[in-house]
Amino acid sequence: MKPLAFLVLALFAAAAIAQDKPAPAPEASKEPAKEAAKPAPSKSATAAKKGSRRTEDARHCLEKTSNTEVIKCAEEYL
Q1: Which of 18, 23, 61, 76 is deepest in the core (most CB within 10 A)?
Q2: pTM beyond 0.70
Q3: Does a structural domain hold residue 67?
Q4: pLDDT tens sequence across 5-48
């Protein structure tokens, strides 16, 4: 049983090694492709960067008296 398992493992390894690797593209053609591939930032992404409070602690919202107040307070941190 062990020789059979070794043979199967060796065949899989040989198949993985035998695969062709893609040729590297010239350096000059990579730069324009990178610039063209970058999308413009969306409004929500820029807004999140300006005033994102995700990393801040919102536990003080749990001290509110009603569920509605807790939700409204916590929404600022989403």
Answers
A1: 61
A2: no
A3: yes
A4: 888 889 888 888 877 777 777 665 555 555 555 665 555 554 54
